[in-house]
Amino acid sequence: MANISELINGWGFGRQGTITSPSITTPNTAATIWRHTNLNTKPWAKVPVNEDDRAEIGKGHEFPTQLFKSHYNMPTYELSKYASSEFLAWVMSFSLGNVTVAGSSAPYTYTIVPALGATNPTGLELPYFSFVQQIRPGGSAVLDEMLVGCAIKGWKLSIKNSPGRASAMCSCECVASGQYTSPSGITLPAASTPHEFNAGMISALTVNGINYLTGGSGKQFVSLDASWENNFRPGFFPGSGTQDGFQIQGRFEWGDRTFAVQFVVRVQAGSSEYSNLINQTTGTATITFTRDAQNSFTMTIQKMGFNVVELSNTDGIATLQVTGVQLYDATNGLVTMSIVTPQAGICQ
Amino acid sequence: MSVPTVFLESPNGDEIKEVEATTAILTPLMAAGWHQVPAPPKHETVILAGKKESN
Question: Is B27 close to A111, i.e. CB distance below 8 A?
Answer without folding.
Answer: yes
